[in-house]
Description:
It is built from 13 helices and 21 strands. The protein has 396 residues and is of the alpha+beta class. It has two domains: 3-70 and 90-171 and 273-383, FAD/NAD(P)-binding domain (3-Layer(bba) Sandwich), CATH 3.50.50; 174-270, D-Amino Acid Oxidase, Chain A, domain 2 (2-Layer Sandwich). Strand 5 (70-74) and strand 6 (80-85) form a beta hairpin. The site of flavin-adenine dinucleotide has 34 residues, from helix 1, strand 2, strand 3, strand 14 and helix 9.
Amino acid sequence: MSIAIVGAGVAGAAAAIRLAxxxxxxxxxxxxxxxxxxxxxxxxxxxxxRVLAAMGLLDGAxxxxxxxxxxxxxxxxxxxxxxxxxxxxxxxxxxxGIQRGxxxxxxxxxxxxxxxxxxxxxxxEGFDQDGQGVTLRLAxxxxxxxxxxxxxxxxxxxxxxxxxxxxxxxxxxxxxxxxVLPAPPDFPQIELRQRFRSASQMIGLMPIGKAHADDGExxxxxxxxxxxxxxxxxxxxxxxDALKQQMAGLFPDVAPLLAGLRDAAQLREARYADVWxxxxxxxxxxxxxxxxxGMSPQLGQGANMALIDAHELSAEVGDDWPRVFERxxxxxxxxxxxxxxxxxxxxxxxxxxxxxxPWLRDRCFGWGGRLPYIHEQSIATLAGVKTGWLWGRLEI
Length: 396
Ligand SMILES: Cc1cc2nc3c(=O)[nH]c(=O)nc-3n(C[C@H](O)[C@H](O)[C@H](O)COP(=O)(O)OP(=O)(O)OC[C@H]3O[C@@H](n4cnc5c(N)ncnc54)[C@H](O)[C@@H]3O)c2cc1C
C-alpha cells in the first residue's frame, strides 16, 4: 500500500518528492482541480535552500529568485529597529526572495519527473485508521486505503482534528494584504525593507525575482499589515487611493512602486493561524507544514519549515510507519518548539494595537542588535537554524 499525502503546497509537494526519492510509493491528494502557481513572495532561508539543493532544485530557484543579503527595518523618525546581515551568520549565507508560484513550479515539475500519482480536484473529507492502514474518505469518490497518511493541508486543516492528541489552531487577530509589483527601471536596488509605526502600521518590500524563466520582469513583493477585522471589505471602507496614501505616508520611498498598483483586485488577503500540537504523529497519521505548526510570516520561516519537515521525514523512512512518524516527531521537536514560541512572542510586537511592546521594541532591538551576541542570535533565528533560546543549532 502506498502512503497518502493530503495537500500539494510546499510541505506536501516536498514530502512527496523526498519520499519518492527514497523509493516510497506516494499518492498525493489536492483539493484544487487546477493548482495555480500563485502566492505571496517568500524568503527562503539557508535551511530551505539546503533542502532545495538536496532535491536538485536550488539552481532553478537561484535563477528565478533574488538574493537578499540584509534585512533592514526602521521607524518614520529613522530609528533602526532591525538591521541583520546574513554575512554575520556565515560569510556565504544569504536569503533568497522568490515568488511562491516560482517555487511551486519547481516542486511540481519534479513531482511530474518522478511520476508521483497526483490526484487534483480530490478533497479528502476524513480518515479512519486501524492497525494495518488508513482509509481516506474522498469527496465524490470511493474511499481509498493507504499504509499511512501525511496531513499537509495548511493551518486551517479540519482533518487535523481527527488526530487524537492535544492541539489548537488560533487565528491571529492581524493579517495582511500583499501583491507583487514590477520594479520600475529607476527603482533603487533594495534589500528586505520594512518600516513600522508602533505595531499598528507596517509595510514590507522584498525583491523576489520572476515568476518563470521567460518572464522579463523582476518583481517586488509589497506587504501591508491590517487587523483581520478590517480585511473584509477594505476596498469599500478604506479604498485603494487612501490605502496608497497611507503606504506612502509611512514610507515615502515606496511612491514610484505604487504607480503599478492600479486596481484593488491586485491586492490579495492573507490570514494566518498559530497552530500548536502536543506532538505531530498519531499512529499512522502525521501532520507537517502549516497544518502542524502554522505561524505568522513575521519570522519568514513557514515555507522553510515545510521543506525541512519533508527532508527530515525522508531521513527516517522505514517499513513501520508509526515508528517512522514517532522518530520524526522526536527529531523535529526542539526546532519546531523554538520557532512556535518565537512566533507567538514576537508577532504582537509587530502586529497589534499594543503600545508598550512596540515602544520597547523600537528602543531595545536596535540597541541590542549592536551587541555581537544578540546580533548573532537574531541572525541565527532569521536563518532558521535555532533549536533553543540559549543554544542548539539545526544541522541539515
Ligand atoms: C503573506 C505571507 C508571507 C509569507 N512569507 C513567508 C516567507 O517569507 N518565508 C517563508 O518561509 N514562509 C512565508 N510564509 C508562509 C508560507 O507561505 C507557508 O508556511 C507555506 O506556504 C505553507 O505551506 P503548506 O504546504 O504547509 O500549506 P499550504 O500552502 O496552505 O498548502 C495546503 C494545500 O492543501 C490543500 N488542501 C487543503 N485542504 C485539503 C483537503 N481536505 N483535501 C485535499 N487538499 C487540501 C490546499 O488546496 C493547498 O494546496 C508566508 C505566508 C504569508 C501568508
